Amino acid sequence: MSLKEAIQGMDVSELSVIRGKVTSSAPLKIQAANDDKLLIHDRLICLPRHLTSYTANCSISGVTDSATIRINNSLQTGESVFILSFNHGKKYYILDREG
Q: Which of 4, 21, 34, 61 is the most buried (most CB within 10 A)?
């Protein structure tokens, strides 16, 4: 689900941005800051591509052939993140890392 899809069908009054800390990277689990009871599991998380590890095609200046590059950018245990809570706290979209 994209951020655009997530936001289009919802009431803005049900949105909130919270901070959290990654407590496990596989499976992904995030502990909400200032709320010891809110542990967000991977099945409730929408994770954008830029916060994952993935392979992409690229071109290098001066080289005629294209190349493949592996981007290792998945969230790691201990990192702080900003989270968009929606659907009355039933779904969470990870916006980005902190800092």
A: 21
